[in-house]
Write a structure and sequence with these properties.
The chain is of the alpha+beta class. The chain is built from seven helices and eight strands; from the N terminus they run αααββααβαβαββββ. InterPro entries: DUF4256 (IPR025352).
């Protein structure tokens, strides 16, 4: 069996979970029907596998918009996904740590599960539908010019506002993870 494909049972369970979340959170995807989404999902087993990984790591993926004739899924867990915390920003940052290295980096994990880290615009758009990361924070895609200087960006939502900050890319915290997106 393909490593990046789900069994029939896993696929059915994931589709049921996604449909339930889709139905309960209609404000995230006005004008989109579950039938459209389900049809698209069933035609792309590798993307279903990635969605399953998002779910397994605590992301609670849901449709947040359209991408041409496709759809955008983003992590919609209330806080940064639990299974994707305590990570530094990228592989270069991970290599640069001499002591107390985290298990991995946000960029590596995103690549392994086939998703993209949210950009600052993505993060702000997600926050416009409801408030996320009230107690945690999430790494966001960092421009190369900031990364070249050793920094990385992260965001959270406090005091009714969405904030973007900077930190050393090699830093990691139990309350900081990353949110991802997947275009299907």
């Amino acid at each position: 069996m393909n490593k990046r494909a789900l069994s029939q049972e896993e696929e059915s369970g994931l589709l049921e979970t996604l449909e339930q979340r889709f139905t309960q959170n209609a404000h995230r995807h006005a004008g989109i029907t579950w039938q459209e989404v389900a049809s698209r999902l069933q035609s792309d087993p590798e993307k279903l596998w990635s969605l399953n990984e998002m779910e397994a790591t605590g992301g609670e993926p849901d449709v947040t918009g359209r991408d041409g004739d496709g759809f955008i899924f983003m992590d919609c867990s209330q806080e940064s996904p639990k299974g994707r915390r305590s990570l530094c920003y990228d592989h270069a940052a991970l290599r640069s740590r001499k002591k107390n290295k985290p298990e991995n980096s946000a960029v590596n994990v995103a690549s392994e599960i086939g998703i993209e880290i949210l950009t600052e615009d993505d993060y702000r758009n997600l926050q416009s539908s409801e408030s996320f990361d009230l107690k945690t924070s999430s790494w966001i895609e960092t421009p190369e010019e900031i990364r070249e200087l050793g920094g990385a960006l992260f965001s959270d939502h406090r005091y009714g506002r969405t904030f973007t900050y900077h930190n050393g890319a090699e830093s990691y915290y139990a309350s900081r993870g990353f949110r991802g997106k997947l275009k299907i």
